[in-house]
Amino acid sequence: MRIHHSLPIAATALALLSGCGGTSLFNRERPDEFAVTRQPPLVIPPDFSLTPPAPGTAASQQSNVQQQALDTMFGGPAPRSGGETSLLEEAGHAGVEVGIRSSAADGKTEVLDKGKAVFDIVAAPEGDGQSARASLGQQQPAG
Predict the structure, then answer these.
(1) How far apart are CA 87 and CA 99, in angstroms?
(2) Which residue has the higher pLDDT, 12 or 94?
(3) Residue 100 has what pLDDT?
(4) Is the pTM of this model over 0.85?
(5) What angle (nearest 5°) sits at the alpha carbon of residue 57, between those of residues 53 and 60?
(6) Which position has the higher pLDDT, 137 or 49?
(7) Which end of the chain is more exposed for a tag (fewer CB within 10 A), N or C?
(8) CA–CA gap between residue 73 and residue 67 (Å, rounded)
(9) Using CA atoms, how far apart are residues 65 and 46, in angstroms rounded to an integer?
(10) What is the predicted pLDDT for the residue at 64?
(11) In angstroms, rounded to a whole number, what is the distance separating the alpha carbons of residues 115 and 105?
(12) pLDDT in tens, 73-127
């Protein structure tokens, strides 16, 4: 009876202790914590005869790191590709400007009033609808 209880305890202890070891069984590739940085990487100068900038002066190519990140993620002001242009022509939206999403919420955008029904649908509370009730309004008496 004691052997049956000590075997699972020994197996559990072995599994827990093996996590602390440096064996190749539990080693894995880990991400490089220095691969993602906020500063742009250092580059080799094109001409080694150039003099370094004086301390305290602005860099010759001052770049905005945040703008570089946005351009990398969202493509920046790049022109549309041929496939995208032909797709938009087929859909009938070839004349739409590239940054339309940025200007959709400005003050000059005209908004259509779709009525109270659409407003009620959009403003409906979240839920499964179990407590929802429908009504037809006031009914005329028959007669």
Answers:
(1) 17
(2) 12
(3) 72
(4) no
(5) 60
(6) 49
(7) C
(8) 10
(9) 22
(10) 76
(11) 20
(12) 776 666 778 888 888 888 887 676 767 766 776 777 777 778 888 888 878 777 7
Task: Give the tokens for residue 33.
Answer: 């914590």
The pLDDT tens digits of the residues spanning 43-68 come to 777 777 877 777 777 665 556 777 77
Place of tokens 């940025």: 102
Q: Which residues touch 103 (CB under 8 Å, ≥6 apart)?
A: 97, 109
Please give the Cα distance from 98 to 78 (Å, whole number): 9
Quickly list DSSP for 105-133.
TSTT-------HHHHHHHTPPPS-STT--
- What whole-number distance in Å separates Cα of residue 62 and Cα of residue 58? 7
Q: 65 and 38 in contact (C-beta within 8 Å)?
A: yes
Phi and psi, residue 80, nearest 5°: -70, 150
Closest CA to 67 of 79, 56, 58, 75: 75
* CA separation, residue 118 to residues 122, 123, 131 (Å): 6, 8, 20
Q: How many residues does the chain have?
A: 143
Q: What are the structure tokens assigned to 54, written together?
A: 């004086």
